[in-house]
Amino acid sequence: MTHRPFSAPWLLALIVVVAAFAGCATPAQTAHMVANDTVPEHRSSNNVSIEVSGGSEQSAVAGPAISNADFAAAIRESILASGLFAAIAQSEQSDYRLTAYITRVQQPMVGFAMTVTFECSWRLIRSRDGATVWEKAITTNFTGNVGDALVGATRVRLATEGAARNNIKDAILAMGRLGLK
Amino acid sequence: MKKFLLLLVTIPLVGLIAGCVTQLKSDVAPGTDLHSIKKLYVERLPADHRGVERLIADRLNVMGYQATSGESATVPDDVDAAVTYQDKWMWDITMYMLQLDVQVRRPNNGVAIASGHVLRTSLARKSPPETVADVLNDIFRGPAR
How far apart are CA A71 and CA B51, in angstroms? Predict the structure, then answer.
């Protein structure tokens, strides 16, 4: 059996291939960026405020974006789940201020195994004297495979969320090693 | 009719991939003052053989900074900031720079203090020096700063 270029099976195959490689970008979801299983070496009885910058809203042609609000919510939930700090506070009332500056979200445009690189510059400031107690640029990766999702855009979103989740996890583990009271 | 449907599917798809989409965005980390930066070093991306690091350094010099470039292992001790980048190229009749990400970092610990991103699809393409200029102008002379 042969198919002419404009036959229905040909068109169907084209759509499936295009969907597998590309698709419409959807934003990263907070719930999928939360690092639930993180156990820090030390826990602090102090509270912390969280400030995120460098994120962006959804873009039309590039991959899924991570907004400042969604990443901040994921950090907040991850910190509470891990117990790294006792509570989350408003900036003016907090014992520590944690800033996360999203520097780079590198996403592939096409492919089967799609690896996303996520870089964030973290800074923990003691509110009492304004001293920086910890600062680090953390780069993490995550790969979305065809087994995870057939549609390419979904694979990129999963990889983006996974890379962001790994970044939060690494940051919590690093802050857990500071031995904060 | 089938040809019409095929065109209906194909045209928006081609438009999305090869059309005239432009994105330009930059951010500065909270509490950072870029005005104190005078001397910069652009670290060559190991995979880059097109000399983008030299284009970035040249543009920074035009903008009034003292900029040099080279391998990441040879960052001079006296620079105020290190610059890193990631470039993405695409072919459409000729090769063109599709995307450029630039980060300005503290030289001592590599922590990023500013970053910029530009994406130009085929019909909106500019030459590499113009693309570099766009993103650096946005980082260092953005309206918010």
Answer: 35
